[in-house]
Amino acid sequence: DAKTTQPPSMDCAEGRAANLPCNHSTISGNEYVYWYRQIHSQGPQYIIHGLKNNETNEMASLIITEDRKSSTLILPHATLRDTAVYYCIVRPDTNAGKSTFGDGTTLTVKP
Amino acid sequence: GAVVSQHPSWVICKSGTSVKIECRSLDFQATTMFWYRQFPKQSLMLMATSNEGSKATYEQGVEKDKFLINHASLTLSTLTVTSAHPEDSSFYICSASDPYNSPLHFGNGTRLTVT
To answer: Fewer CB within 10 Å, N- or C-terminus of chain A?
Structure first.
């Protein structure tokens, strides 16, 4: 499994965009980039995923560099409830593809 | 969307006893499920891959006789922590993905405390 590296922590002001970076320089051609977040004592929540094109859904946007070695998760208008640990993982697009989690980024949204 | 349910959400047991944790896919069939363990302030650590109808695949360093995994149906996988000890106290999380919809979905975890 390709490993990912993320900054350990970030702060963001409420209402501003939160941009969370992730490096995955050893990603394979068949691996997707997935983002999850985990609020204390809960299971991770799926946010978004992509292969090489930028993606957007109701929660966030995902920007993947052309060489696919890094990506950025964007929360356009962060709220206090977005405070969580955010994990970037890479995984083959099959239901049997296992995922290894890195240390994630603890995002703190401040009023 | 795909829902993964885990039960119980928390359990307290005495040393030497065994504890079973269930993971169910509620609205899809999961031929593969994954079990993770998470210690406080740490990331999720993959323990094993549970395969329906066959033996689980364990990650290096995970004792298969200690953590018994059974995936007897397409919607249920169980993790049994045998002869539990206080060092087994942790947050156990399962996940699965719909074969037709790739994102992994996670259960809400089980907090195990061994006294």
So the answer is: C
Nearest to B43 by CA among A98, A8, A20: A8
Q: Chain B: nearest CA to A71, how far in angstroms?
A: 17
Of B32, B46, B98, the CB nearest to A96: B32
DSSP B9-64: SEEEE-TT--EEEEEEESSS--SEEEEEEE-TTS--EEEEEEETTS--EEPTT--T
pLDDT digits (tens, 9 = 90+) for A24-78: 999 988 889 999 999 988 999 999 999 998 999 999 999 999 999 999 999 999 9
CB atoms within 10 A of CB B79: 26
Q: Tokens 């090489």 sit at which residue? A: A52
Which DSSP symbol is given to A82? Answer: G
> Are the C-beta atoms of B16 and B84 separated by less than 8 Å?
yes
Nearest CA in chain A to B103: A46
Report percent pLDDT > 70 for chain B: 97
Check residue A8 and report its DSSP letter.
S
CA-to-CA dists, residue A11 to A71, A107, B4, angstroms: 18, 6, 31
Contact assessment for residue B33 and residue B94, using Cβ atoms and an 8 Å cutoff: yes
A50 touching chain B per CB within 8 A: no
